[in-house]
Amino acid sequence: MLKNSMLFRQLIYTISLSGFCCQVAAQSVNTSSAAVWTGYFYSIPVTEKWKILGDAQFRSKYGFSQLSQILARSGVSYAIQPNWTISAGAAYFKSSGQLHNENIFLDEYRLWQENAVQFYFHHITLSNRTRWEERWLQKKLEDVTNSFSYANRWRNKTTLTFPFSAVYSGEVGSEVMVVANQSNAVDLLRAFAGIYMVCKPSFIVQLQYLYQCQYKSIDAIHYRDNQHIVRLNIIQKFPQKL
Known about the structure:
Elements: H1 2-26, E1 29-45, E2 50-61, E3 66-81, E4 84-99, E5 102-121, E6 124-138, E7 148-163, E8 168-179, E9 186-200, E10 203-218, E11 221-237
Parallel strand pairs: 1-11
Antiparallel strand pairs: 1-2, 2-3, 3-4, 4-5, 5-6, 6-7, 7-8, 8-9, 9-10, 10-11
C-alpha cells in the first residue's frame, strides 16, 4: 500500500512538471502549424505473459498537404504483474527535412526499452509509461548522405482514462521527452485529450487532439515549433489463439 502511494505521488509530480514545462516552453514558441497523424497499433499474445506489439504511422504537416514522417515500430513485452509490463524493441523512422530550401527525407533507427504501470481507482485508470530510446539520426550533409549522429532520449507519458459507457472512453494526459546532447534538455512536450470507441473487444478506434511543442534549431537559430495535431488510430488486440 505504501509503495502504491509513493508511486502515485511520483505520477502526480510528473503530470505537474510536464504541465509547467509546457507553459514555459509555450512562451518561446515562434512557429505554429496543424498536422494530421494516422496509425495502426497491434498486440499479439504469445503466452499469458509475453506479447508481440508494434505500430505503423503516417504523419503529415499543414493538414494533409505535406508528408512529414512515416514510421514502423515493433517489440516484445513481458507482464511482470497484470498492471506492470516491461517492453523492448526497434523502430525505423523516415522524417522530412530541408537542404538548400529543398525537401528531403532522412532516416532514423531506434532501439527502445519501456516500463509501464497502471493504477485502478474504481472505473478510472492512471497509466505511466517511461521509455528510453537509443537513436541514430541521418545528418543533413551535402557529400556524406549516409552519415549518422547518435542521441539518447528519455520520455515519460502519463495518461488518465475514464469510461463514458460500455463503448466510449475518454483520456487526458501529457508526455515529456528529455535529451542530454543539446543545449535545451527538453526536446519535446505533449499534452493530449481524446476518445476511444470500442467496436469490439479486439478492435478499438481512437480519436485524439495532441498539442506538441518541439525544440528545433537551424544553424545558430533556436526556436520552438508549436503543432496542433489530430490523430486517428486503429488499435487491434489479437486473441491468444488465432
